[in-house]
């Protein structure tokens, strides 16, 4: 399998998942501004959405969208346990978290990174994220991870998005359960390895 990624982007989630699962990936870095791969290919011709991640399977099929790629990868190594068994209530709870991250968190951080986004909209986005973090802080009270004591795909994706907070001037220290949770995920050896592999650090520099 081949992962198209950009360092520090949401593609970090499947990169971490692969490491946790013991899946060896071919990697192709993408310049998201220029829409070019590191070897000079037009990325639009590979992924018409123009975004990372994209996972190219061994049969040539291509998958996009973080939750889909994460679940596919986990299903290749079910014994690792990053995803609850299909058909169980826990599986749907995990997908509830994945959908929350992708729709309520990820897509709210995104506009803050864009230079063309009006400052008023960035301020509004930070306020919305703040409300989400207040809610998340309550959900994490007394828990190691989103699903309790069990580390899942949802934790990988949540961590990747939370990692953007200092970069966009959102102080996680205001949310002690969230901050402790992010520190806990960052300290996992397989997570730390992938941060280093992409030239990243925790916590990131603002």
What does this structure look like?
- The chain is 47% helix and 9% strand.
- The chain is of the alpha+beta class and 206 residues long.
- The protein has 2 domains: 2-80, Glutaredoxin, CATH 3.40.30; 89-188, Glutathione S-transferase Yfyf (Class Pi), Chain A, domain 2.
- Helix 1 (12-21) packs antiparallel against helix 5 (153-162), helix 1 (12-21) crosses helix 7 and helix 3 packs parallel to helix 5 (153-162).
Give me the side-by-side strand order of the main sheet. Answer: 3-2-1-4-5
The topology string of helices and strands comes to EHEEEEHHHHHH
Q: How many domains make up the 3D coordinates?
A: 2
Number of helices: 7
Largest sheet: 5 strands, mixed
Instruction: Kindly report the CATH topology of the largest domain.
Output: Glutathione S-transferase Yfyf (Class Pi), Chain A, domain 2
Q: Cα distance, first to last residue? A: 33 Å
This entry's quaternary arrangement is: single chain
Shape: globular
Q: What structural category arises from helix and sheet content?
A: alpha+beta
Roughly what is the average pLDDT, rounded to an integer?
A: 97
Question: So, CATH architecture of the largest domain?
Answer: Up-down Bundle
- Strand proportion: 5-15%
Would you report the number of β strands? Answer: 5
């Amino acid at each position: 399998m081949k992962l198209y990624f950009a360092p520090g982007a949401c593609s970090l989630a499947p990169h971490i998942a692969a490491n946790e699962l013991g899946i060896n990936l071919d990697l192709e870095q993408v310049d998201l501004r220029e829409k070019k791969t590191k070897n000079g290919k037009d990325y639009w011709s590979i992924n018409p959405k123009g975004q990372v991640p994209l996972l190219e399977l061994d049969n040539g099929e291509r998958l996009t969208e973080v939750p889909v790629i994460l679940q596919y990868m986990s299903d290749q190594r079910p014994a690792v346990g990053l995803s609850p068994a299909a058909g169980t209530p826990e599986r749907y709870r995990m997908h509830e978290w994945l959908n929350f991250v992708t729709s309520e968190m990820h897509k709210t951080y995104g506009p803050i990174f864009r230079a063309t986004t009006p400052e008023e909209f960035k301020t509004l986005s930070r306020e919305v994220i703040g409300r989400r973090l207040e809610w998340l802080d309550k959900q994490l009270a007394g828990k190691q991870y989103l699903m309790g004591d069990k580390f899942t795909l949802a934790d990988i994706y949540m961590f990747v998005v939370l990692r953007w907070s200092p970069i966009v001037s959102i102080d996680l220290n205001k949310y002690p359960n969230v901050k402790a949770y992010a520190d806990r995920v960052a300290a996992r050896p397989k997570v730390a390895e992938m941060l280093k592999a992409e030239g990243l650090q925790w916590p990131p520099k603002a």
